Each structure stands twice: as C-alpha cells, then as structure tokens.
Amino acid sequence: QSALTQPASVSGSPGQSITISCTGTSSDVGGYNYVSWYQQHPGKAPKLMIYDVSNRPSGVSNRFSGSKSGNTASLTISGLQAEDEADYYCSSYTSISTLGVFGGGTKLTVL
Amino acid sequence: QLQLQESGPGLVKPSETLSLTCTVSGGSISSRTYYWGWVRQPPGKGLEWIGIMYYSGSTYYNPSLKSRVTLSLDTSKNQFSLRLKSVTGADTAVYYCARTGLGVGTAVVDPWGQGTLVTVSS
Question: Which of B29, B58, B103, B114 is the most buried (most CB within 10 A)?
C-alpha cells in the first residue's frame, strides 16, 4: 500500500514551534486513532515519540505532541532544541493490510 | 528493560539468501501480548515493513516480499530470525528487528534493535 504523505523537510529556529503533517486516507489515518510518530537521528534506530495519535511514552519530553484532523495527523514540537534535529516518521494502522503503513519521513533542521 | 540486537552477515552476494537473527533480552518472545518483526530502511530512504511473527508461529508478510521471506523463532534461545532469498541490490538496507502488535498494534513499534546494514554485492 502507498506510504503516508509527509513533507520532505521542515525547519525552525531554537525556541520556535514546528508542525509535521502526515496525510493518509480514511482507510488509515482518517479512520482510526492509531497513529504513531518516530524520531530517528542519523545512524540510529527510530524511537517512538507518540502513539495512538497523541499519547507520549514515558520519558518523552512534553514538548512533543500529536493531533489529528480528518485524514491528516500532525506532530508538533515546541521550544525547538538543537537535539530535535532528526528525521521523523509517522505510522498508522491500515484496514487494507495486516501490517501498518509508514510515512515517507520528514527531515527537521534546527537553524 | 527490553532490548533487541540484530546479528548476521553484513555482505550478501546477489541471488543468495540474507539471514539475520534478533536476540531479545529483558523479556520473552513467548509473550502473548506482542508480535516480533522486521523493518528495513534502504540508504537514504524510508521505513518498510518486512513481516511480523507471533510466538505461536503465525506470520504476516509484506505482500511485496512475501514470496522471498521467511520468519522463524527459537523460544529456547529467545531469538527470532529473518531469511530473505534471491536478494538483489534493491535489498541493500539497514535491517531492524523490533517489537510490535497485530492489527491496530502494528502502528506501534517499540523498542527497536540498533539495526544492521546488509549490503548486497558481488
């Protein structure tokens, strides 16, 4: 199945807030509240940052938040820090496959 | 704390079989709550599911890879394995093992192994 659609890149200055979008269809993002977000630093494994649209695992900074509207989920990072510079991937349950579906990834640059 | 570690050859010749093993520590792969799976990431590209497996032996594969993939597990060693046959350069990627769920649970992948780069080249 097609990957979820994410912007290739976003950028922001330290202290600012940015939002990364993740657009799917009614068969995945729009139809269910099972969207996750992962952070991946270069050469490292992805790390779960948000699950079930807006829940943070223990240990994840509250500067990271998730939301959803229609077929688009969003990850917002507030108070940008240099350490937030990484690739971010969304993932969703999909009714048309047993396996979940990933987004194409977004590179966040902290200016 | 659950930890996963991939192991296996970093170089595989075209047309041969890629074999990787994931060793799980800090938890049991016989858990009735979770599935165990593999995700790969070609250099500079995004994440792709390969497949997932339950302790009972049930498996679910990415349709695009299904004809070439076999997942297995060894509960006595707390390990699960990936075999991908007839590899080509397109299979060059970092391969991650991870814990996930089934159905709605596949949206949550946590934790991940550190990943291992497998290059397909003669």
Answer: B29
